[in-house]
Amino acid sequence: MRKVLAALYSVLVYGFFLGVFLYAIGFVENILVPKSIDSGPSGDVASSLLIDAALLALFALQHSIMARTGFKRVWTRIVPAEVERSTFVLFASLALALVCWQWRPLPQTVWSVDDPIGFRVLLVVSWMGWGLLLLSTFLISHFHLFGVSQGLARLLGHADPEPAFVTPFLYRWLRHPLYAGFILAFWAAPHMTLGHLFFAIATTGYIFVGIWFEERDLIAYFGDRYRQYRATVGMLFPKVRSVAPRKGVAR
Fold it and tell me: Which of 48, 78, 110, 142 is the most buried (most CB within 10 A)?
């Protein structure tokens, strides 16, 4: 019964996450959702910024605390190990849903691209960011990342594999293509409002903090192997490698 419940729980949480994440895309892109980053009732700038900052801080704290190894060690004494990741995804999805629900728009225009070509280019870049993000999750095992594999493991008789150091496709040129996708999606806005700009700045800042924590944990686990990878592969953009000129032979 525990195996069945764990499997059902992980699948239901994934379904909830998928719904919230798709809504969040519409929220950022201002399409197909009843309340987006630039719609809904707005108050004065100061109170709106405080509310939005509190929402993003709650989201960041949930991620930072629950992702740490020390917290997981204590947390799995309460929550079964096979659903620990799904529970993290559930809390993250609830925090993201709260951001979308309670966000206070700041509709003041920061920039607006009226040129049709420039407008389309920025839209394409933004959607490329979402595509890059999605592709990156599948490169590092999408269903393991969101807890489904762990929840189904016992029911299917699979052992949860030990973390392995691999660099598939995009990870040969970028250490964090998933985060690069987020940054492209958040910043490539043809019409940037003050609220959207605040969202982009705050989330980008948190991404850099998250990268610091994540790489610290990866170095602790993989040691010199990850240090070498970090030294040779760019974080969010490919590193430009200079080619030393070949020495000529004196004749």
Answer: 48
